């Protein structure tokens, strides 16, 4: 059958063609003036059909007469409109279902409440975090997850047997909550919210985008990079703090892409200037350097490819290899320094990559014996475990120096770490090893400059931070003297600075207090000797007034009377 345009009112107005939309295609034998008669909107109650009469098991239909029926007279055998346009989900599977874990509904019953999306493997993966901690869960069906929809649109939808395009989302609560509590936004709902986990219809790994409170796994002192996320549950706004997690789907993403996603989602959640990156975008970065192999399904990435993916997202990545001669003696110290800076790391172990976002340190341990100079110790000496997220396991595992001591610990140990990749901001030009070399030259002359530090073994803590964050916490920390706070507030600083805190061991271990710090310009290169921005000692403050105003170095000295110790800087990491 041939077709023609139903509306030929096309005018040329001295430029592009302008048409009156829409132009309808209709059969040629029909009059051009005939317009398509759309049926009136359907109104009426929804009634379930008898499952015996319907092969679809009792789907809902609108109970209105068919067009050819007389008013009030239904067609023979009809229970409602036989229009295929109105078709809804069976009401026995509601979009939202609130489950309270008790003797009738134990943790294992979640597998029935969340089927078919949640698999036994997925349940076991959530179990170490949430079993015994979560008292209620909301099962949210038909959830459209932006990350899964991204991989579905670009990969899964092209399969012959396609999985569903929608997900299921689980919301966990530490105490029993009711539907009224959630709808009314009761304070207890926010207080007891433990986070969420998206369950994808992918096999064998169904755990999608997940953000569970970091407090669930840390049974002792821990220092972790975390971010906040706002969650909407039936119109109620909830907040959760933790570290993003996702498992690989073994097709579009494997461990490398999943670890990159966790790292990049942390940055986009915490810092507004980093854009949100979806899984397929990460996988697609491999197309720039696939070198004769296919991109999909993913077969993994080399460490240099992961670093290149970070570079394409406007980071300045550095790969640290344990076997490199320049890193063999300080490899774990550098890893700790970047973690202390609030920069999560991609950690490469044999055949796998995980994300490290925190550490557990034990300051009850004694200082090492002073066998040789220098007469100071870095806080990395007291680090005993790393906090990692392994996409093959669950978030917030502890990776101990000597290997696992409990079943829920990571299977790896420190000796298994071959490389780590740090994603430095673009405006950080000086890496940790270079700034430490420069700082060491200043530290060795500290004791002759300060009578109160003379004869003491100093504890040093090195980290990177932004000048904005450093200044924002000046007043709350006290800074030991009002003049120090005042000068720091009005001293121009580069966007990023390296800080080396100076502390007495006992005071640091017991009260988390320090006696001074050294500030170094993170935008200098390794060969410039004038990177010192300020040196704060108990008796004096030395600061560079020249570099602050883009002039040659000009050091000013201010004597401080009645100095006091003050709180260390804690904005980079969330401390439990």
Word description of this protein:
The chain is an alpha+beta fold and 576 residues long. Among the domains are: 175 residues, no CATH class; 144 residues, no CATH class. Strands 12, 15, 16, 17, 19, 20, 21 and 30 form an 8-stranded antiparallel sheet that branches. β13 and β14 form a beta hairpin.
Give a concise summary.
With 576 residues, this protein is of the alpha+beta class.
Number of helices: 16
Q: Biggest sheet: strands, sense, closure?
A: 8 strands, antiparallel
Distance between the termini: 73 Å
Gyration radius, in Å: 31 Å
Counting DSSP E segments of at least 2 residues, the number of strands comes to 30
Structural class: alpha+beta
Percent helix, as a range, is: 10-25%
Shape: globular
Strand content: 25-35%
Kindly report the average pLDDT value: 82
- Low-pLDDT stretches are 1-92
Strands, helices and their partners?
Blueprint: E1 3-5, E2 10-12, E3 17-19, E4 25-27, E5 46-48, E6 60-62, E7 96-100, H1 110-113, H2 120-130, E8 136-143, H3 146-154, E9 167-173, H4 179-184, H5 187-191, E10 193-199, E11 207-212, E12 223-224, E13 227-233, E14 236-242, H6 255-270, H7 279-284, H8 303-312, E15 315-321, H9 331-340, E16 345-349, E17 352-361, E18 376-378, E19 383-389, E20 397-400, E21 419-425, H10 432-443, H11 446-449, E22 458-466, H12 467-472, H13 474-477, H14 482-490, E23 496-504, H15 505-511, E24 513-514, E25 516-521, E26 532-536, E27 540-544, H16 545-548, E28 555-559, E29 566-567, E30 574-575
Parallel strand pairs: 18-22
Antiparallel strand pairs: 1-4, 2-3, 5-6, 7-8, 8-9, 9-10, 10-11, 12-17, 12-30, 13-14, 15-21, 16-17, 16-21, 17-19, 19-20, 22-23, 23-25, 24-29, 25-26, 26-27, 27-28
